[in-house]
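One-letter codes give the sequence; backbone shape is given numerically. An example follows:

. . .
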Amino acid sequence: MAAGTIAISKPARRPSGSALAWIGVAPFFLFATLFLILPTAFLIIGAFQDADGHFTLVNLTDLSQPTILAAYKISLEISAASALGGALIGFALAHAAVSGGLPAWIRPTLMTFSGVASNFAGVPLAFAFLATLGRTGLVTWALMQWFGFSLYATGFNLLNFFGLTLTYLYFQIPLMVLILTPALDGLKREWREAASTLGASRGQYWRWVVLPVLWPSLLGSTLLLFANSFGAVATAYALTGSSLNIVTILLYAQIRGDVLHNQNLGYALALGMIIITGVSNVAYIWLRGRAERWSR
């Protein structure tokens, strides 16, 4: 080095913003690959194999068995009933909290409760309903002791179609509130003022302005509730055991049961569920995109 010269070191190259962003989402892709993509691929492959690993279509043809068709039918009915009920009640709650003129503390309280209740499922939820509305539950006992009213004498049963649908509503309604509240917030006050200026009644405003704007969110949210209910297994199994023949319980019996054990048929059942829930979720994503374009 010549005398009098100063060595200047180059600064260390920092990773670009895009590189840091990819590092940030790497755990998500790893999680999705390990717990979603690979298990789904394993189920799809298993649906087309026999017990020895050979290719077969028998598992798919066995889905036409009356017991399996009945399980899909009742699962679809419960999912549709809980989705529609959750959508209607959840929409009413969300609308009341957003634009119903209620006290200001109602909305944050409702949103906090909805965030907790929408994730309250499985064995704890089943136990809560049994302790509340079971044959020896608190509400059942209170109605008999205080009013002489026997809830189960009316034909009510927590372990049948109606009881499971009612249980599912506990997490379906809060989920609808959480999804639909941002859509209701997107309704601009100027639209209501313009409609009033033009002489539109409240009913006409809802018919010609609100519902056309909200229908993608309403329909998409209902489809999401349908998929959410259709894939639920822990709550149904803990609540009804094997007394209600829904597809998730039948799938569990085929994969892990001692009597109905047929692992590859269980994979075929799971493939059918993946198709149904996949179509519902794709439709929800498409409808959500339409709703977001309206809000912009």
Summary: The mean pLDDT is 87. The CA atoms of residues 59 and 265 lie 5 Å apart.
